Amino acid sequence: MGESAPEGNEDDPAMPAPAVMRAALEAYVERINRGDRDGVIALFAPGATIEDPIGTPAKTGDAIADWFADTVAFGTQIRPVAPIRGSHADAAALMFDVTFQPPEGPPMLIRSLDVCTFDAEGRITSLKAYWGPEDVEVLPG
Question: Helices (H), strands (E): how many in the chain?
Fold first, then answer.
């Protein structure tokens, strides 16, 4: 008889179940696509950090709120290109294409892989975005 995949670490209540992390990332996509800045921010734990892309200074607190205000203002849309991936720990990953219209310049596309960690309540504690210059495309305007 086969064993089912673990739903979380029952010995560690501080670790969220994979389904909880997956649901948070699904909500992240849905809320960004809907332009729900406050809804997106609510997915993050107090003290959360965002490093987007990896190698840039981490955003925290008000910088996260300002960043998502720009995300909404730029008409950002996320299209997952693979299923959300969980883990046997407190992390999950989302691979997607994101399109947006900066206030000055042409529409842009970025191909990204975001890896997030979560607290016991399923809130994002860190988001690290993996993309580089070769993952950015200028779209016809």
Answer: 3, 6
- pTM higher than 0.85 for the full model? yes
| Cα–Cα distance measured from residue 57 to residue 51, given in angstroms and rounded to the nearest whole number | 6
User: Please, what is the Cα angle at 24 between 137 and 2, to 5 degrees?
Assistant: 105
Q: What is the DSSP letter of 59?
A: B
41/55 Cα distance (integer angstroms): 22
Report how far residue 73's alpha carbon sits from residue 127's, in angstroms, rounded to the nearest whole number: 21
> What are the tens digits of pLDDT across the range 48-83?
999 999 999 999 999 999 999 999 999 999 999 999
Length of the chain as a residue count:
141
Strand-strand pairing, 108-118 and 136-138: antiparallel
Catalogue the E-assigned strands of 1-141. 44-51, 77-80, 91-100, 108-118, 124-130, 136-138
